[in-house]
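As a point of orientation, let us examine one representative protein, giving the amino acid sequence and backbone structure tokens.
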Amino acid sequence: MNRRLLLSAGVAVAATVAGGYTLLGQKSRPSAAPADAGDPVAALMQLQLPDLNGATQSLANWKGQPMVVNFWATWCAPCVREMPELDALQKKYPNIRFVGIGVDSAANMQKFVEKVQVSYPLWVIGAGAIDTLRKLGNPSGGLPFTIVFNADGAINRKILGEIQVDDLEQTLSGLKA
């Protein structure tokens, strides 16, 4: 009985993940992994991700600038709580690029921003991003997950869980544009 229950649960989880990824549609899927997929940071920088208007975006376009990359989801309460704080920091530090990368569907994110607006861009990576998060140093694949990059593209800091504004601000104030 237990084996059948475990097998059924495993199939249900796999179907849910596959179904969620399929629901994202072709435009919401990240492009194939770049040739340098062995380096997770380089792979992240080269990903082609859609914004909420369907236009393709890439962190590589911001090369040479410090960045804050926040992985979030509409269903993640700590993610939603920290968004106004990230928005305020983005306004305070205009020389630092902020982006929210949604581990969610474009449709969910579009509905969400009708209620909670932020001034930084939101891109869609979809439910299949857990492996990407793990490769970037988030073993549990948990959300929110924030990475601060120096202008040279090196990781300055990783924050798993909700940001602490004063703590993140101290990091941001030390970044050179």
